[in-house]
Amino acid sequence: MKKIILSSLVVLGLSSAAYAQTALDFTTVDGDVSGGVSLVEAQVAWPDLTAEAFAAADVDGNGELSAEEYAALTAAAAAPAS
Fold it and tell me: For residue 38, is it within any domain?
């Protein structure tokens, strides 16, 4: 199920080309050093990121991405589209 959701992120607006241009690690994107990446912070790294794609990556639904959720999002964005 996670693979399907994460794969859909690519379809929802994240492309590998966009990721390659703005490859940022979790610590860099977490601008307020809260330990989570908000939608606004994520959109700084990926301006094309939609709220729907962010929500799909936010597995626990707390409104921000943990380091693990962020890693899954970046992995999905970097994976070649099939």
Answer: yes
DSSP-based helix, strand, coil % in the chain, nearest 5:
55, 0, 40
Residue type, 55: A
Q: Provide the residue range defining the domain that includes 31.
A: 2-77
In a domain, 82, yes or no: no
Per-residue pLDDT tens digits of the chain, which is 82 residues long: 554 554 454 444 444 444 444 458 999 999 999 999 999 999 998 999 999 999 999 999 999 999 999 999 988 888 777 6
Phi-psi region of 66 (alpha: psi -120 to 50; beta: other; left: phi over 0): beta
Tokens for 2?
């996670």
State the sign of the Cα–Cα–Cα–Cα dihedral 9, 11, 14, 20: positive
For residue 57, CA distances in Å to 7, 35 come to 10, 16
Instruction: Name the amino acid, one letter, at 20.
Output: A
